[in-house]
Amino acid sequence: MVTPVRVVIAVCLVAPFVAMLWVSSYAKADPAFIGIPFFYWYQMLWVLISTVLTMIAYQLWQREQRARKAARGQRGARS
Predict the structure, then answer these.
(1) Is 49 a member of any domain?
(2) With CB atoms 3.0 to 4.6 Å apart as the test, which of 11, 12, 51, 68 could cross-link to 57 if both were Cys?
(3) Average pLDDT score over residue span 20-31
(4) ∠ at Cα 6 (45, 51), nearest 5°?
């Protein structure tokens, strides 16, 4: 079942792959950051961004699973 939360989870998990596979967007030396060419610091920045996005996706998934269990529990109690 596709829900808005699952769409957000998918975007969080797919975004780093798209950013890293679109090499022409970052295959350059400028702008350098503290002497590090753009090509390298962009990739390292995405390591941090990917971590944050994965944490967000995990938290959203956990919240959705708890809500689904609670909804099942309430339906079972009504029967």
Answers:
(1) yes
(2) 12
(3) 89
(4) 20
